[in-house]
């Protein structure tokens, strides 16, 4: 009797742990779920993979995302930018490949950083962006502008003219060409 009780207890424990592990593996259930924006720039396919946080009543620009500091351009894992062909970003050449996309927001101008190190979590334990500047491939600037209507969730949009980051009350367009 004792052994069957122990066996049942062990099964219950294993089931509970495996259910918890599977729930954590379902990234769509995160507060900042994964999202993808894909589009064509001429014949090049551009894909941005990111995690989409919500405003949740917070002041985003200048507070949640401080001005003048490197930001992972999303939540959780670092945001990635991939192109299957060489393209021009803000008039500068970016070879085909996969990059981590970082941003340095400012009130009047943003800097976007394309970095060759990929696969890292977005921030270090210290809270700063997980960026090794030795792996920077390209930096470009862009001008933020007010959005006509606020966006609760961070989103990227890829169009034939480039990509746009949209969140809270701002959108930041970046020009792309083949």
From TrEMBL:
InterPro entries tied to this protein: DUF2911 (IPR021314)
Position of the signal peptide: 1-23
Protein keywords: Signal
Pfam annotation, one family: DUF2911
Protein known as: DUF2911 domain-containing protein
Record organism: Siphonobacter curvatus
């Amino acid at each position: 009797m004792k052994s069957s009780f122990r066996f049942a207890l062990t099964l219950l424990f294993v089931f509970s742990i495996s259910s918890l592990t599977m729930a954590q593996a379902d990234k769509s259930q995160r507060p900042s779920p994964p999202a993808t924006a894909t589009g064509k720039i001429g014949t090049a396919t551009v894909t941005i993979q990111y995690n989409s946080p919500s405003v949740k009543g917070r002041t985003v620009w200048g507070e949640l995302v401080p001005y003048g500091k490197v930001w992972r351009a999303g939540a959780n894992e670092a945001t990635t930018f991939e192109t299957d062909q060489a393209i021009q970003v803000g008039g500068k050449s970016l070879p085909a490949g996969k990059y981590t996309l970082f941003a340095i927001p400012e009130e009047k101008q943003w800097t976007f950083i394309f970095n060759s190190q990929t696969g890292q979590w977005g921030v270090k334990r210290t809270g700063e962006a997980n960026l090794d500047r030795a792996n920077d491939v390209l930096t470009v600037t862009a001008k933020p502008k007010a959005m006509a209507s606020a966006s609760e969730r961070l989103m990227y949009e890829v169009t034939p003219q480039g990509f746009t980051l949209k969140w809270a009350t701002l959108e930041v367009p970046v020009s792309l060409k083949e």
